[in-house]
Amino acid sequence: METADGRQAGAMVAPSLLAADRMHFGRELESVADADYLHVDVMDGHFVPPIAFGAIDVRSVAAASQVPLDVHLMVDNPDECIDQYLDTEARIVTFHWEAATHAHRLVEKTHQAGKLSGVALNPATPPEALRELLRWVDLVLVMTVDPGYGGQGIVEGSRDKVARTSRLCRELGVSPIIEVDGGVKTDNAGTLAAAGASLLVAGSAVFGREDRAAAIHELRLAAQEG
Ligand SMILES: O=C(CO)[C@@H](O)[C@H](O)COP(=O)(O)O
Ligand SMILES: [Fe+2]
């Protein structure tokens, strides 16, 4: 089904493993086996205060699940550490625009490793910052909360930012995946998808529910109805 402006209606869903129960991780992975991607938040204790998931964990998840992995690097200077993530089974590797020194080189390396390359924007970074980079990347991750923590409320103006990102892509004649991350729930999935988001990350909205398959299904449905 297509929207009035020619986009595919609906969106993919990526449960964020940050919200999963570490004490029962295998069972948690099984519970989200029908997701489109699994979102893995890498946090270095510098770019964001917490420390979470490293390349070793990405490899363990890849070995335990058939679902493709979407790795979100919240690290200072990804130029220094991206190689270890490119050396995993991850399907998508995304660095933060604010943290990168040679963004184009990161994209090139990611492609050479056979992966999709994503760039993430903090809430305070405008999409226009990506005017050059957009023609090379496969994905733009619009942070809809300040990075570092799960379970936060969505930042005001996020819908509008997704719409501006989508417009800029159209203007440049490119069509990367637009991913939204932070505070995504069934009550905002529709407006985010209608604004152009095609990949929804959801941590608490999935792992906070007993029935994860139903949570994923309801997010997809909400995105489609948006
Ligand atoms: O990157 C991050 C946080 O920095 C996210 O991926 C969160 O893990 C999303 O969790 P919810 O806001 O959906 O609970
Ligand atoms: Fe994330």
From TrEMBL:
Keywords: Carbohydrate metabolism, Isomerase, Metal-binding. Substrate binds at residues 16, 72, 148-151, 181-183, 203-204. Its EC number is 5.1.3.1. One of its GO terms (molecular function) is D-ribulose-phosphate 3-epimerase activity. Binds 1 divalent metal cation per subunit. The keyword Lyase does not apply. It holds the Pfam family Ribul_P_3_epim. PANTHER family: RIBULOSE-5-PHOSPHATE-3-EPIMERASE. Belongs to the ribulose-phosphate 3-epimerase family. HAMAP family: RPE. This is Ribulose-phosphate 3-epimerase. It comes from Olsenella absiana.
